[in-house]
Design brief:
This protein is mostly beta strands. It has 4 helices and 16 strands. The protein is globular and about 55 Å long.
């Protein structure tokens, strides 16, 4: 399998070339184009319980599997939002991914939902988080560019900028400064990651965009 991410970081897309019998699993709707000889199947990975858990995590119930029926068959994938994509290697451990960032994977990788606890909910991730575990390759996307940080002790991130992190990292949700800073600094809540592992953050966030656009919305006047 050969894979290349093009058009980074604004409108990234993934271009995969598969040898005969190789498979790529991806989110429904991610396919831009494909070799007509590729075989596509849609199913609930992890059974009904796994599918429903992904639904609670804000992901789709079904996943698409593309299988090559011959050599050098191409599959082109793109995320639903403008932004960056990265390739993440998995070697037996797990990476926890924010809602909407998972795009596809290759190899012996299981995509499931992971209970994040109340701290994940207050951190903006929801009570259920997506988890990719196994050996292989995963591709994930962001809104804006993706920046990888190798945490060796501790690192603090605004909750709306988190894309994914290794399971070896733990986090707590805090506020910066006192109550005055919470409401006036426009920083909101942050996650303090501790431990050793990889952390991916995005350079833009959707709540900030929504706040920027709000003054330009047309408001219909009531008679």
């Amino acid at each position: 399998m050969k894979a290349e991410i093009k058009h980074r970081p604004d409108y990234a897309a993934l271009h995969v070339v598969l040898d005969q019998g190789e498979k790529v699993v991806c989110e429904p709707g991610a396919m831009m184009g494909m070799d007509p000889a590729l075989k596509m199947e849609t199913n609930m990975k992890g059974g009904l319980l796994g599918a429903m858990a992904r639904k609670l995590a804000g992901e789709t119930v079904f996943l698409n599997t593309y299988t090559s029926t011959g050599p050098a068959q191409q599959l082109d994938l793109a995320p639903s939002t403008p932004g960056d994509m990265v390739e993440v290697g998995l070697s037996g451990g797990a990476v926890r991914v924010q809602r909407g960032s998972y795009v596809a994977h290759f190899g012996d990788v299981e995509i499931s939902a992971k209970w994040g606890g109340a701290k994940a909910f207050f951190g903006g991730e929801g009570l259920i988080m997506l988890e990719a575990r196994g050996t292989g390759t995963m591709w994930m996307a962001s809104y804006g560019a993706i920046h990888q940080i190798d945490v060796k002790d501790a690192y603090t991130v605004d909750t709306s900028h988190i894309v994914a992190f290794d399971e070896s990292l733990t986090f707590t949700v805090n506020k910066i400064g006192g109550m005055k800073s919470l409401f006036l600094s426009q920083e909101g809540l942050v996650c303090r990651f501790t431990g050793k592992g990889r952390l991916w953050i995005q350079t833009r966030n959707a709540p900030a965009l929504a706040g920027f656009l709000q003054p330009f919305r047309r408001v219909q006047k009531s008679n």
